[in-house]
UniProtKB/TrEMBL annotation:
It holds the Pfam family Hydrolase_3. SUPFAM superfamilies: HAD-like (SSF56784). InterPro entries: Cof, HAD-like_sf, HAD-SF_hydro_IIB, HAD_sf. This is Phosphatase.
Length: 258
């Protein structure tokens, strides 16, 4: 069998609802590697928020921040930080409206306010065991790959109108991801597959959510999780069982890889 590369989303896909790796998933990843395939991660998470998973599964190739920070075999091959001037303007507007902002680079995350119930509640749902500390100037003199804007649904409209250089994606009733406009996991994946010279027909992708759609549509050998959104299932070639029901192992069988 020729070498293929398989990209897995994390939350709702490679991880079960307890944010852990199922035994069947761990065994499936090991089997792929034994066959000579490359196993990679494609996530909206920051690199420092899934380092423990990379170590657990021995994965050193990944697309993080929805395509803004891309690593191949431990080496950074592509970055796409937020526009610093626009981020400063967004911060000033957020302060006027009492909306908290969190700044995230490849190593850490910091908040522009010392404490916020919205920050605590929304980030708490990720079960990552940590919250951003306070540093209102963290975005200065460093590359920020993603920010989080904390506002209720509907309150993001002025930001969307003013900041065309950013994409705003809501992931919690109180929080939005702020990303470079036009970026995606699929574009980040391309930075890896181009360097490796792996053609599209030997690329595979697993996902469940809205930020996976371009990846699931762009890679013909795509698998949506049974727990995934209807849009993800419609975009994918195959639909497997849920992330709690051995969905990775079953999906790899559907794709003919196991």
């Amino acid at each position: 069998m020729e070498k293929s590369i398989i990209f897995f989303d994390l939350d709702g896909t490679l991880l079960n609802d307890n944010k852990q790796v199922n035994d069947s998933t761990r065994e499936a990843v090991a089997a792929l590697k034994e066959q000579g395939h490359i196993v990679a991660i494609a996530t909206g998470r920051a690199p420092f928020l899934f380092e423990h998973i990379r170590k657990e599964l021995n994965i050193d190739t990944y697309v993080s921040y929805n395509g803004s920070y891309v690593v191949l075999e431990g080496e950074v091959v592509f970055t796409n930080p937020l526009n610093d001037k626009a981020l400063e303007q967004l911060t000033n507007l957020a302060l006027q409206h009492d909306h908290a902002v969190v700044y995230m680079d490849h190593e850490d995350m910091r908040a522009n306010v010392p404490d916020s119930e919205r920050v605590t509640e929304s980030i708490g749902t990720l079960q990552i065991g940590t919250l951003p500390t306070h540093d209102p100037l963290y975005y200065k003199d460093r590359f920020i790959y993603q920010s989080l804007l904390f506002c209720a649904e509907g309150e993001e409209k002025p930001y969307e109108t003013l900041f065309g250089t950013f994409d705003f994606i809501r992931w919690h009733p109180f929080s939005l991801d702020v990303l470079p406009a036009g970026g995606s996991k699929f574009k980040g994946i391309g930075k890896i597959t181009e360097k490796l010279g792996i053609p599209l027909e030997r690329q595979y992708a697993f996902g469940d959510a809205l930020n996976d759609l371009e990846m699931l549509q762009g890679i013909p050998n795509s698998v949506a999780m049974g727990n995934g959104l209807p849009e993800a299932k419609e975009a994918a070639k195959w639909v497997t069982t849920s992330n709690n029901e051995d969905g990775i192992a079953q999906g790899l069988k559907l794709a003919g890889l196991l």
